[in-house]
Amino acid sequence: MAEGDKIYVDPSQPATLQYPGGSVDCPTLQEAVIAWHKLPAKDREKANIKVNVGDGPLYTAQEIDRLHYGHCL
Predict the structure, then answer these.
(1) 24-31 — which CB contacts under 8 Å span 24+ positions?
(2) Is residue 73 part of a domain?
């Protein structure tokens, strides 16, 4: 993955994984991403993750794989 393709995030923020047929509240964004990886491929394609801090971002299925927990220097 090219450096410019990465989306830098704080993995400790609470988040909700939303997918066809349900949703899962997770204590951290990192755990929501792990849960997303465990979904069947057909559900992963339609899922998203909402960060539950203030007006936090909503990451689409296409963005979730680009989330990166490192620091941008």
Answers:
(1) 25/52, 29/67, 30/69
(2) no
